[in-house]
Amino acid sequence: MSLGKEFTKGIIRENPLFRLTLGLCPSLAVTTSVENGLGMGAAFSAVLLASNITIALLRKIIPDSIRIPSFIVIIATFVTLIEMIMHAFAPDLFKSLGIYIPLIVVNCVILGRAEAFASKNSLMPSIMDGLGMGLGFTLALVIISAFREILGAGTFYGIPLFGASANPALIMILPPGGFITMGIILALMNKFQHDAK
Fold first, then answer.
1. Which H/E stretch holds residue 122?
2. The whole model's pTM is what?
3. What is the per-residue pLDDT for 196?
4. Which residues have CB under 8 Å from 146's CB, separation 6+?
5. Facing residues of 156 across strands?
6. Residue 49 to residues 63, 109, 134, 165, 190: CA-CA distances in angstroms?
7. pLDDT score of 13
8. Distance (Å, rounded) from C-alpha 1 to C-alpha 13?
């Protein structure tokens, strides 16, 4: 198993959002600005990496009969730590992401990586898997949020792009804008993948 392949698979080939379409609910809810997308991506990546490391180290100790509850306790521990750190050092981002931070505990990508990968592999492949999946998820969130923020608010990372006379399409920062954006991105990815064959 190549560590490079384990890292890169999460960025494009098995991207959690664009290829596996997992974790859509919080992804579409928080991607109204690039700052939110980066914040959620960083929190998600930290939890994924820490839980992958812990589960890979404990995989031979955790009995099969309590495997899933153990994974959830491990993930919840890291989510709580990230939530407390974010509340202390980035209170505005903490308020902006709201309930979606604690919901990382039940994010199917993190639990899926714990079950499908970290519990079956050693430390280094699990680290590479966590880093790659986290980076892929974060990149996807930033792409979606950039598209939505530019078209829906006329800004990028809060910086005005079009001046005071701009008339942005407000629907893009509302819930339908998330679905429209995701649909366009998935359609483009499928088109490019089809053309590459």
1. none
2. 0.89
3. 64
4. 34, 37, 156
5. 159
6. 22, 12, 7, 44, 29
7. 84
8. 16
How many angstroms separate the CA atoms of 58 and 185, rounded?
38
Task: Say if CB 45 and CB 137 are below 8 A apart.
Answer: yes
Structure tokens at 144: 């979606």
CA distances (Å), 41 to each of 47, 91, 189, 194, in order? 10, 16, 21, 28
**CA-to-CA distance for 103 and 76, rounded, in angstroms?**
9
Q: What gap in Å lies between CA 65 and CA 67, rounded to an integer?
A: 6
**pLDDT at res. 165:** 75
> Phi and psi dihedrals of 98, rounded to 5?
50, -130
pLDDT at site 109: 86
pLDDT at 1: 59
Low-confidence stretches of the chain (pLDDT < 50) are: none
Question: Cβ(152)–Cβ(32) under 8 Å?
Answer: yes
182, two tokens: 């995701």
Handedness of CA 19, 23, 29, 33 (dihedral sign): negative
- Mutual angle of helices 123-153 and 175-196, in 10-degree steps: 120
- pLDDT the model gives residue 134: 92
pLDDT at 197: 62
**Distance (Å, rounded) from C-alpha 158 to C-alpha 85?**
23
* Cα distance between residue 166 and residue 77, in whole Å: 44
Residue 133's pLDDT is 92
**Eight-class DSSP state of 138:** H
